[in-house]
């Protein structure tokens, strides 16, 4: 099956979330402010992934 734009967006979001988690796990955040910012970025990416999933379902259901 060919990759869709939804697949690409989800893959890129997953990769970025993994990078940010690794950064945090390795003690990369030098301040609480930086830590909070990264946590906010992760939350935003996960929210985007859910919206992409919802949009994908809408598009797939509209084809039926």
Brief description of this entry?
By secondary structure, the protein is mainly α.
Number of DSSP-assigned strands: 0
List the secondary-structure elements in sequence, H or E. Answer: HH
Give the termini separation: 19 Å
Structural domain tally: 1
Describe the structure.
This protein is mainly α. The protein has one domain. Helix content is 81%, strand content 0%. The chain contains two helices and no strands. The chain has helices spanning 5-25, 32-62. Helix 1 (5-25) packs antiparallel against helix 2 (32-62). The protein is elongated and about 50 Å long. It starts with a helix and ends with a helix. The relative contact order is 0.15. The model has no long low-confidence stretch (mean pLDDT 95).
Protein traits:
mainly alpha; 81% helix; elongated
Strand-helix topology:
Elements: H1 5-25, H2 32-62
Helix pairs in contact: 1-2
């Amino acid at each position: 099956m060919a990759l869709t734009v939804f697949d690409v967006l989800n893959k890129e979001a997953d990769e970025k979330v993994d990078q940010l988690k690794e950064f945090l796990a390795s003690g990369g955040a030098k301040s609480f402010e930086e830590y909070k910012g990264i946590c906010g970025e992760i939350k935003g990416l996960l929210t985007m992934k859910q919206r992409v999933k919802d949009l994908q379902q809408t598009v797939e259901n509209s084809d039926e």
